[in-house]
């Protein structure tokens, strides 16, 4: 093939090369900004509880401080902030391990109904503490097999149910529903709590993102729970979404791949010659 306009061809090639390089540089810049923001978020999130603890300790160290009741309250508050720091460290550790691919997805086939019931049992006490009724709308008595990482999906369920308690209402209900689609199952966790304003929905799964409501209500949390959930579901090549009506409640739903039950080989007797 002989080109009619070789100079134009070379020009075109150089243009393409330059545009590709520009895309690469933009991507590097984006990653760099992401890293910077991430670090500044972390230090900000650590500062708040640390300053609070420091404040309570300083107050208690004051020679004039005599009020025993108040001292007990300050210690309680300091202890809550210590808890907050340890949650943060645990969640940060988890998300960085997930993102570096250090913990791979261990697929196995199991009945999702059994896992949901297990998680519900383990969270029954917490539900009582929040005065929330935890229910499972089960239609498939025989159980439905999924192909997924059982422990990681347990974590997803725990995080979503835990949020439904934190942002739920006193005397409310958290319902878990299971639906079968063609190749997938859909699991939904629904609460009738404070709900989420529409403008926040697109940012909900970002690391450290918390709505103003949850911050002002002083609800404990790292802001990493949903980021961990999203990461786990996407690592399974599945999807997660949320719908919510502010003031009325929210539904978080995620899909999993259906797993066919593998029947064991029948025992064929060995023929002796
Ligand atoms: P955390 O709960 O530790 O703040 P998450 O990542 O789990 O962090 O959630 C991020 C934010 O999304 C929460 O701070 C809260 O504002 C909002 N959110 C999550 N789940 C719910 C829910 N079920 N109802 C209302 N708001 C929620």
Automatic annotation (TrEMBL):
Gene Ontology CC terms, in alphabetical order: plasma membrane
What keywords are annotated for this sequence in UniProt?
A: Kinase, Membrane, Phosphoprotein, Transferase, Transmembrane, Transmembrane helix, Two-component regulatory system
Enzyme kind, highest EC tier: transferase
Q: Out of the domains of life, which is the source?
A: Bacteria
The reaction(s) this protein catalyses: ATP + protein L-histidine = ADP + protein N-phospho-L-histidine
Q: What is its EC number?
A: 2.7.13.3
Full protein: residues contained: 82 to 354 of 354
Recorded GO MF terms: phosphoprotein phosphatase activity; phosphorelay sensor kinase activity
Q: Does the keyword Iron-sulfur apply?
A: no
Q: What is this protein called?
A: histidine kinase
- Domain named Histidine kinase is located at 41-260
The biological processes this protein is annotated with in GO are: cellular response to phosphate starvation
